[in-house]
Amino acid sequence: MGKIAKSKTDDLGVKVTGSARTGHKIELSQDGALCRIFGTSDETQAKALMSHCLKPLGADEASDEHPGNDERAFMLSIVNDMAPRDPVERMLAVQMAATHVATIRAGGWLSRAENLAQGQAHSTAYAKLARTFAAQVEALRRHRTGGEQRVIVQHVNVADGGQAIVGNVQHGGEGRR
User: Fold this and answer.
1) Euclidean distance between CA atoms 25 and 27, whole angstroms
2) Measuring CA to CA, how many Å separate 105 from each of 74, 102, 113, 144?
3) Taking the model in full, what pTM does it have?
4) What span, in angstroms and rounded, lies between the C-alpha atoms of 13 and 93?
5) Which residue, 58, 80, 68, is CA-closest to 9?
6) Which of 48, 67, 93, 167 is the most buried (most CB within 10 A)?
7) pLDDT in tens, the chain (177 residues)
C-alpha cells in the first residue's frame, strides 16, 4: 500500500490528535464540522457522539503513537458517509462504525490464534459481530423506509398467448374458508 497524502478528516474539517491516556484534542478547521458529520444542529449532541466514537477504540486504535492502527478518522468518515438524518440514525451510524472496527479487530485476533481454544473464541466473537453488523444494516434500512419493502420488476417477457397482470394481486376471497 502506498502512503496516503491527505487524511480523510482533513476533508471533513476535523482533526483528532492525542490519545485516551493524554486526552484527545479535536480541532475543527470548518465551522460546524462535527454537526455536519453527525447530521445535527445540536453541538452538545455532536460532541457527545464524537466521544462515543472514541470510547470503543482500543489504546492503539485511537492514538497518535500508532498511526497505522488509528481508527478515529475512519469512524468519522463512515458516519459522515452514512449521512444520518435523525437521532436514531446518528446513534446507529456510530454503533455500526464501532461494530465494524470490532469485527475487523476480532478477525485479526482470529488470524493470530495459536491454539484451538483461541481460534474458537475469536471465531465466535467474529461471527457474532458480523451478525450484529448485518442486523444494524437491516435496522437502518427499516428505519429509513418505515419498514416498507419494495420489489421493482424492471422487465417482464410474456410469450404469445400468455397473460400478464399488472397491479396488486391478493389471494383468498369467497371460495376459501
Assistant:
1) 6
2) 14, 5, 12, 29
3) 0.77
4) 19
5) 80
6) 93
7) 444 444 555 689 999 999 989 999 999 999 999 999 999 999 999 999 999 999 999 999 999 999 999 999 999 999 999 999 999 999 999 999 999 999 999 999 999 999 999 999 999 999 999 999 999 999 999 999 997 777 777 777 777 777 776 666 666 666 555
d(CA 136, CA 129): 10
Is residue 62 within 8 Å of residue 18, measured between CB atoms? Answer: no
Q: Do residues 84 and 90 make contact, with C-beta atoms less than 8 angstroms apart?
A: yes
Give 45-49's long-range contacts (Cβ < 8 A, gap of 24+).
Answer: 45/87, 45/90, 49/79, 49/90, 49/91, 49/94
Distance CA 164, CA 5 (A): 57
Q: Which three cell numbers stand for residue 66?
A: 500508532
**Dist. CA 59–CA 93, nearest whole Å:** 22
